């Protein structure tokens, strides 16, 4: 395809916009897959006294704009209030502290590594 020199900048910008759209769509796909897998990982690895907390993990779209796409993995109501207490530990009624059950941080690290790995592979 021949491009006149006067139209070169316009054509380059058009190609870059097309590439940006393709990258954005791919990021949406990858982030949805990663969020789904992280929610499953948290379902499996969370503490299971009654099973309600572990079953409450889900994911959804946080923010989608032209240059930003976020997915949120979270515990649903009312179990979301336990996330910090279980992950970090807390003071109990008798004055002692409960032991932290670290389960969110490893899932977050795995998600970041997988997101980067998939982006590098697909793009």
Key descriptive features of the protein:
alpha+beta, two-stranded antiparallel sheet
Description of the molecule:
- The protein is an alpha+beta fold and about 120 residues long.
- The chain has one domain.
- The protein has a two-stranded antiparallel ribbon.
- Strand 1 and strand 2 form a beta hairpin.
- Helix 1 runs antiparallel to helix 4.
- About 15% of the residues are buried.
Shape type: rod-shaped
What's the number of extended β-strand segments?
Answer: 2
- Quickly count the helices: 4
Count of spatially separate domains: 1
Can you tell me the residue ranges where pLDDT is under 50 for at least 5 consecutive residues?
A: none
Structural class of the secondary structure composition? Answer: alpha+beta
Main sheet attributes: strand count, strand direction, barrel closure:
2 strands, antiparallel
Alpha carbon gyration radius:
21 Å
Strand order of the largest sheet: 1-2
What is the chain-wise order of helices and strands?
A: HHEEHH
Helix content: 55-70%
The oligomerization state is single chain
The first-to-last residue Cα distance is 25 Å
β-strand amount: 5-15%
Average pLDDT, all residues: 91
């Amino acid at each position: 395809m021949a491009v006149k020199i006067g139209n070169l900048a316009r054509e380059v910008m058009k190609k870059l916009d097309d590439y940006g759209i393709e990258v954005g769509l791919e990021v949406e796909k990858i982030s949805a897959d990663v969020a789904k897998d992280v929610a499953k990982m948290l379902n499996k690895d969370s503490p299971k006294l009654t099973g309600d907390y572990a079953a409450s993990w889900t994911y959804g779209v946080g923010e989608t704009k032209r240059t930003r796409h976020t997915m949120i993995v979270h515990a649903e109501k009312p179990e979301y209030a336990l996330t910090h207490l279980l992950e970090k530990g807390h003071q109990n009624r008798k004055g002692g502290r409960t032991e932290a059950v670290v389960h969110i941080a490893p899932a977050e690290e795995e998600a970041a590594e997988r997101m980067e790995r998939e982006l590098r592979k697909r793009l």
